[in-house]
Amino acid sequence: MAASGALQFALQKLDSILVQEQQLLRGFNTRIKDIRDELESLKIFLRGADAGDDKDDIKAWMRQLRDIAYDMEDLLEEYTFHFGQPHRHRLLGFLTTSIQSLRHLFTRRKMSIAIQDIKTQLRNISERRSTYKFNSSFNATKKRVHDRHLAALFMEEAELVGIRKPKEEIVGRLVKGGGSSSLTVVSVVGMGGLGKTTLVRKVYDDEQVKGWFNSHAWITVTPSFTVEELLKSIIIQFYEERHEKLPARIQTMECIQLIDTLRQFLQDKRYIAVLDDLWHITPWECLKYALPNSDCGSRIVVTTRNKDIGLSCIESCGSLYELQPLPQPEAWFLFCKKAFRSVSAGVCPSELQDVAEDIVKVCGGLPLAIVTIAGLLSKKAHVLEWRKLRDNLHAELANNPKLEIIKQILLLSYNDLPHFLKSCILYFSIFPKEHAVTRITLIRLWIAEGFIESERGETMERIAGDYLNDLIDRSMVQVAERYDYGRVRSCRVHDLIHEVIVLKSEEENFSTLMITRDTKRHGKIRRSSTHAAGEHLLQSDLSHLRALFMFRENVLPIPSVVNLLSRLRLLRILDLTGAPIESFPLEFGKLPHLRYLSFRNTKISKLSKSLGQLKNLETLDLKETYVTELPKTILNLQNLRHLLAYHYYTSHRPPYYLADGVKLPHGIGKFRELQKLTYLEINQDSRIVRELGNLTQLKRLGLVKLRRVDGASLCKSIEKMEKLLSLSVTSVGMDEYLNLRSLTSPPPLLQRLYLRGPLQALPNWISSLKHLVRMRLRWSRLKEDSFGVLEELPSLVELTLIHAYDGANLRCQKGGFQKLKILDLERLNNLNHVVVDGSMPNLQKMYIRSCVQLQEVPQGIQQLVLLKEIHLFDMPEEFVQRLEGEDYAQVSHVPIRRSYDSEKGVYKEL
């Protein structure tokens, strides 16, 4: 964790203890307050230096400070472990406290010595800080990459690959094709190393652009410049280009005078100004007033790594151009052009083909990386040298001066992060390269770690989501997958950014990767992810471990795992996803600080009563396990925020129940912090249904085996869940109606609705769901003309009907389903005719599955001009042949048309 991040967490913990545990501190209070004040002072000091000066003495100073913060955090965790909370009963509390006073006398003395030692270390560190002059490494790094920046400006176009199309598009936006005579802004956005500066320079130097504008200026907006210096640079460029005399006293002018001077000069001119490498919005907020809109067709081009800044610049008068990595063929061509220029005229020798392809893949379409690594390898002829670089890229980035430019360019983005985002991005170093992490998992882990700084009126989940969006906007994190309705499902980091943050993680002692079976680490390990480590893991110092992830099966035998975990009393996160275990023999009381526990995809079927001792637990993930009932002691987990416990059926034709749920004891209304509960089995338990009304913080609720008689009670409970975003309800059987008609005031923010079971008709309250984007109906038995309620929903993007419609004709009214993008029809056994004429104008994907009576493609499908994909699954051969024959003209505008045969396991393009 960045140094100030480590201090921030220690300070939060100190504040909590000082407020809540004053009676138990007994002598520690004053000394802990002293430490707290000194840490606060150092944290403020570090805010300006946390980007990290690369001088060895300063890095050592910061490492010492970070270690002290970690040690203080350890001490506080030891305190809560040994002394805990006072007992509720006075007599029992008195006796217990007396016994503990004797039992923990040695512990208190040990803590006292440790606190005094920390105070001494802090005093020494504070005395030394005045000897260091911190300079932002952002600026220092900028100077180191200055030569590379110049190379990007003046690179010959013959040297470039993949630039023609984006150049033509941006030129078109700037000159006559741009259309508007008003001042407009084009923001070019992308991660470091993509070639934004190179691309825009070629646009700027293009003959069309040079001729179209009569005034030109290029400004590199490095953080080392003040706004006044930037304004002077622009004025000098504009004046000198027209051979005009500079205004008198320009060097002594203040900001307002400079802005006025520039505005007057540009008032009647068609100009182009490039603001290259904009890192922060502040310079733009001043410069935009100096660049007037004179209705002459002037243009401003901004390059930035931060999408949010790019959007802020264009406001209502511009466009965003997101520069993408090179496609694989162009990346391969560029690599070969650089690596084999002198030996084989740009053609890869056969013996290097495989290793070269691997290296190009790691570069991930990043031109800077491709050119730099290819240039290095062009001087290495032997295949063993190539393999060495491929297999040890992490070490090469750390130590090879010829690859320093890649590391520094990517570190610019890291160094620019605020302190609270640095620990968030470093968390990706825990996961294997190319590993996509689900958005919600990442958010829960950040919360469990204490990375999220809470704000009044906002949940930590919301703030963590904003953190992730910020990292995505800054081009540090890539979206790996989105749901069809737009929300981010999973994300990852570029392979080279992963290499860089692993280096940074090692430097910060943030996490340790146990990659091989002979891995052994020295020093205090804070977080560990084991990819293939064996018994050597047990020989490392793990007493300070905060998080443990095991990514592969058979990493350690179960007795060794139990032995290991019994020593990790400070552990906050334990992720055993996919581990080959059927039980968890360790008493949970030995892990009192656990906040996140995952047994996902294991064969565990039961958890012990000791689960109730995990009073700090926030996330319990039992997804795809065989746990069907949780012990009564789970009611002790009052901090629980996310409870996932279900097992999906994965057969080709699952039974009525898509998922088995879990039974909970009476009293679940005590879970006042619970935000996600899936799936709760409520068969034969009306009391549980009523208690759900106390869970007012719920955002996602999944219920199975609802009886018809409990429908009214469930509706009353749901009406109290004003924050609910997702609701899934399954009836107790396919002959048991879902009785949800009495819900008069549905959750106003509901976005996703999944109903499984017969409905006499769609409930009227559905029409009030203004934010509903996704709806899935199964076994609904709806009759013809029953979709009027859905057609008017203003935000509905995805609609899935599975055994949900009994009618022969499905007719959508003209103007209906205005926002729908995905339509999925499955096993509608009576359906023989569909009409979409005049509806669904934004439909992009259509799925038709096992609708055996359907005779022809939907009527009006040719009007769906945005339709990009048609997928047919197990449809009658006659239907498929008709689509290829007489109905072909109606679907010829759809780029992707495929038919799948699940029994044969094949598909064909239509």
Automatic annotation (TrEMBL):
Which residue range or ranges hold the Disease resistance protein winged helix domain?
430-501
> Is-annotated flag, keyword Disulfide bond?
no
- Which biological processes are named by the entry's GO terms? defense response to bacterium; innate immune response-activating signaling pathway; plant-type hypersensitive response
Which InterPro entries does this entry report, sorted A to Z? Disease_R_plants, LRR_R13L4/SHOC2-like, NB-ARC, RX-like_CC, Rx_N, WHD_DRP
Residue intervals passing through the bilayer:
none
NB-ARC domain: which residues? 165-342
Spell out the protein name for this chain. Answer: Disease resistance protein RPM1-like
